[in-house]
Design brief:
single chain; alpha/beta; Spore Coat Polysaccharide Biosynthesis Protein SpsA, Chain A; 10 helices
Length: 272
C-alpha cells in the first residue's frame, strides 16, 4: 500500500472491556494522546454496569475522540460476540484491536497504520506491568513507562525502534502468541471470514480460531516487533473452565481448514 493511501486510511480502534473503569480510564487517556488519533474508538463492552457507560459519556463530552459505546447483556465471558457487535458498527477501513487494560505508547495507532500490508493481519507484542506498578498508575501516579521503568517485565517489548522493527518483524503463519490485545487487520478481511466465532464463549481460543480462518482464507500473519508498543496493566487469571470446549472448536477449524463460521459478525449486520 502506498504512503498516500496509508495517510488517508481511517483506523477504527476497538477496545474490549468489562467492569474495569479504572483501567479503561488510563487506556483512553493514552488513546487521547496518540500522535495520530484513530478515526473512531468503539468500546466493545461485554456487559459492564453503568459505571463504564458514564465513563464513556464523560470522554464523549470532554475529549476529541470519536467515541462509540457498544454494549451487550452480561451473560458471561463473550468476547467474540462483543467484538463482532462492535466491529459491525465500524466505518473505518482498518481495524485495530486492544483490550481495556492496555496503555498505548503515543505512536501506537500510527505504527499499526504504517505497518499495514494488504493480504496480512498484524500481531503485536505487549510489555507486562507488575501488580505494584499497576496499582501506582491506577492510583493516579503518572509513571513514565519505558524500558528503564522498575516493575516492567518483557522489557524488550517496550522498545520502539523503526530500524529494529524492519530487521526483526517477520511474516510467519503460526498460532504461537496469538493475542487480540494487540492486533490489526483490514475490515474487508474480517468480513471475508465472518469475524469472530460467537459459539466460543468463556475465556480462550476465540482469537486463535479467528486467525486460523484468516490464514485458511489466504490472509497471512505479520509478527510486529519493536513497534506498536503497549503496556499491560496487571490483573488476575481469568476463569478457564471453558477452555476444553473451546479447544474442540479450534481443532475443528484447523482440521477442516474452515474459513467461515456460521455464527459471526453476520448476526449484527442488519442492526446498523
Amino acid at each position: 500500500m502506498y504512503k498516500s493511501q496509508k495517510k488517508s486510511m481511517k483506523a477504527s480502534l476497538i477496545i474490549t472491556t468489562y467492569n474495569r473503569t479504572d483501567a479503561l480510564h488510563e487506556v483512553l487517556k493514552s488513546v487521547s494522546k496518540q500522535s495520530k488519533l484513530p478515526y473512531e474508538v468503539i468500546i466493545a463492552d461485554d456487559g459492564s454496569t453503568n459505571t463504564t457507560k458514564k465513563l464513556v459519556e464523560a470522554y464523549q463530552k470532554e475529549s476529541k475522540l470519536n467515541l462509540i459505546h457498544s454494549w451487550q447483556e452480561d451473560l458471561g465471558f463473550r468476547a467474540a460476540r462483543s467484538r463482532n457487535k462492535a466491529i459491525a458498527r465500524a466505518s473505518g477501513d482498518y481495524i485495530i484491536l486492544i483490550d481495556g487494560d492496555m496503555i498505548l505508547e503515543k505512536n501506537f495507532i500510527q505504527d499499526h497504520i504504517n505497518d499495514s500490508i494488504k493480504g496480512f493481519f498484524i500481531q503485536g507484542t505487549r510489555s507486562l506491568l507488575s501488580q505494584n506498578l499497576t496499582q501506582k498508575i491506577l492510583d493516579g501516579n503518572r509513571e513514565k513507562l519505558n524500558v528503564f521503568q522498575k516493575g516492567l517485565m518483557n522489557k524488550k517489548n517496550s522498545i520502539r525502534s523503526p530500524l529494529l522493527s524492519k530487521i526483526f518483524s517477520t511474516n510467519k503463519n503460526s498460532l504461537s502468541g496469538i493475542k487480540t490485545c494487540n492486533m490489526s487487520f483490514f475490515l474487508d478481511d474480517f468480513f471475508t471470514v465472518n469475524g469472530f466465532n460467537n459459539d466460543i464463549q468463556g475465556w480462550g481460543r476465540e482469537d486463535s480460531e479467528f486467525c486460523v480462518r484468516l490464514i485458511n482464507a489466504g490472509i497471512r500473519r505479520r509478527n510486529l516487533r519493536f513497534s506498536a508498543i503497549q503496556f499491560h496493566l496487571w490483573h488476575g487469571l481469568e476463569n478457564r473452565k471453558s477452555l476444553k470446549k473451546n479447544d474442540l472448536i479450534l481443532k475443528k477449524t484447523i482440521d477442516q481448514k474452515l474459513t467461515w463460521c456460521k455464527s459471526g459478525v453476520n448476526e449484527f449486520i442488519d442492526e446498523y
